[in-house]
Design goal:
The protein has nine helices and ten strands. By secondary structure, the chain is an alpha/beta fold. Bound molecules: cytidine-5'-diphosphate (CDP).
Amino acid sequence: MMNKNLVIAVDGHSSCGKSSFAKSIAKKYGLIYIDSGAMYRAVTLYGIEKGLFSAGNIHQNALIEALPSLSIRFTYNPSLSRYETWLNGRNVEENIRHIEVSARVSQVAKIREVRQQLVQMQRDIGKNKGIVMDGRDIGTVVFPQADLKIFMTASLEVRTGRRYKELIGKGEKVSREEVMENLRTRDQIDSTREESPLRQAPDALVLDNSFLTPGEQMEWLENILIEKGLA
Ligand code: CDP
């Protein structure tokens, strides 16, 4: 029997398949799935649309002031079989995935006030629920008491290939080099920032999925849940 308040944290490097894995886990075990990265992306999109970036820098104070007025929600769209992110009542699922947002999101995610606000929202969403959340600081900061913490990674080559294919598939005009550079830069900023940097929690289990199929990943997880008496 599945414990209905099971909390699973999935952290790791950019574009290593955290979201796909977390979604499959949620589906299989009847948990709520939350993409914390989408929340940082939504705040970044807001900043771009409000003209808060100039010469590549963000006007931090203006963004911080706007934070309390931002509403970020998730819904599941059954006809497209996907989760969708809403910012102030508008569906922004497509917009937040563009490379322009990826290019700026790590700068926004460094800001302490942004993190405080989003971490609070993430904890509220997860309260008294079975949940799987993916991001960078879920096992270290958001849910340090998670039942299971997974730290995912894959080679930069493999991650670039996956994200490039995904973006090209959506009709975005990007080069492989641009994608690789974005992943490299984000990992660098995310791992070295002062506020809750990307770190492997001491009690996290590492999953390098460079050469694993989605089915093999799931088997890995099932065995762990059984071993831990969680499923
Ligand atoms: O899916 P992908 O690996 O491209 O990234 P994401 O999960 O959508 O996250 C986008 C960015 O948000 C990351 O590069 C981090 O800068 C930031 N982020 C964070 O700081 N903390 C989280 N819990 C999740 C994302």
